[in-house]
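Appendix B. Chain record.
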Amino acid sequence: MLGGSTNLYLISRRWGSGLVRGRLGLLIHLSPRRLATAERWFSRWGALAIIFGRHIPGFRVPITVAVGIFGVPYRTVVFGVTISTAVWAGFWLWVGAHFGARIGHFLGGHRWAYVVVAVVILALIATAIIRVVRAEEPSPAEE
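Structure tokens predicted for this chain:
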């Protein structure tokens, strides 16, 4: 985990800022004001932002990219990723130790559960995309 995060951090630190402050940033609606707000947030919260941010589904990779772009010191990144990974691994090891046999037994007898899980994940992703698209549409009052 730390090796992959380090590589992503170093790549983001080298090339990320130029990308998000250029055409790519405009394409994904990253205004200079939004970037400045995010940079202040990371400088204020540092390791805590990394630790907690990496536990939000879908944010493990973007948090690592963001800390590279905003120049969070590598020492802070290593600390945050190490703590985050330890908590993440510990949690899933605990889940596996306590519920693994029951989950395995259930999934072995109910193959349809895989389809249900896949549909739920796809529905969540579709909902998130729709919300983003609707948020970008101007309201009738703005027209």
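Further analysis of this model is presented in Appendix C.
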